[in-house]
Amino acid sequence: MKAIVWTKYGPPDVLQLQDVEKPIPKNNEILIKIHATTVTAGDSELRRLKLPLMLSFPMRLYVGLTKPTRITILGQELAGEVEEVGKDVELFKKGDQVFGTTGFGFGAYAEYISLPGDPNDVQGTLAIKPSNMTYQEAAAVPTAGFEALHYLRLANIQRGQKVLVFGAGGSIGTFSVQLAKYYGAEVTGVDSTGKMEMLRSIGADYVIDYTQEDFTKNGQTYDVIIDVVGKRLFSRRLKSLKENGYYFLANAGLSHLILKIWISLTSSKKVIIAAASQKREDLIYLKELIESGKLKTVIDRSYPLEEIPEAHRYVETGQKKGNVVILIEHNN
Asked: Considering the entire predicted model, what is its pTM?
């Protein structure tokens, strides 16, 4: 089968199209013919191993010290069709259309993948694809959907509360905007000029172009801030959070961890740095919201499998609106 192989740490060209062995499912696994996967900012950071200090060294130990050895095919979410079912699998049958995540094994940049039919917490999760979504649309749901749902549940978001999403135009951001609106919040989306209209179209009550306006200077405060960008000026953005409010930071470094401790000691503000678990019941919940018309994916660009390096280059520009999807064609 065809797959994009991760040959070393570095720029997009380290991802190379190669022929590899088609997986054979074990008794507890299903073989999925992948029709769509995605390229996220996280994929790009992992490819380069450009991660916060607290993650980069453990990941290098896990993946390979000098080059990828344990994981050689990236891709963490997918949508496809079940082609074979191991004899011990009960949740799925041949022909099922599924979507989900691959866990720490990655491997979705390929024509086929074998995954556990009933995975544990680190093996990803799968569910039947939403009936009103294409494979392309469904592949972009799980990872970002899990994160957005995780943030808003931890904050126990209430109707009428004010939520600000910084980096609202990306994959996590677009789901955060829609879910916050579903829960009844007043939502402000912050991103660059080209994403303003899209943010309005998915329900943002207010939009702020950060290239034209600094939201930390407008006097507004928020019950919840979801910061998908992180990086610089975190302490300034924190001033826009109400006392007893929640600040969720998706991309944290060591300095953020230190500041989190200081904030917890000196104020009632809560800084949360924690990734979502990937539970099947949450994926089914997202599916139900999609099928009821409450949630949709935003697709910016689609690429074929062999153009994944180019997709990585585009994602690294920071200009993508929502999601970048990879469509995988099969000759049989």
From this structure: 0.93
Residue-level pLDDT at 226: 95
How far apart, in whole angstroms, are the C-alpha atoms of residue 120 and residue 3?
A: 25
170 is a domain residue: yes
Measured distance CA(278)–CA(260) in Å, rounded: 25
Structural domain includes residue 186: yes
CB within 8 Å of 190: residues ≥ 6 apart: 164, 165, 166, 167, 168, 207, 208, 210, 215
Query: Where residue 253 falls among pLDDT bands split at 50, 70, 90?
Result: low
Whether 45 maps to a domain, the answer reads yes
In a shared domain, residues 134 and 62? yes
> Which DSSP helix (H) or strand (E) runs through 246?
strand 241-249
3 state SS of 233: coil
pLDDT tens by residue, 97-150: 999 999 989 999 999 999 999 888 788 899 999 999 999 999 999 999 999 999
H or E stretch covering 195: none
Q: For residue range 166-200, list pLDDT tens digits in order.
A: 999 999 999 999 999 999 999 999 999 999 999 99
Find the helix or strand (DSSP H, E) in which 2 lies.
strand 2-6
> Phi first, then psi: what are they for 61, rounded to 5°?
-60, -40
When divided into structural domains, the chain yields a total of 2
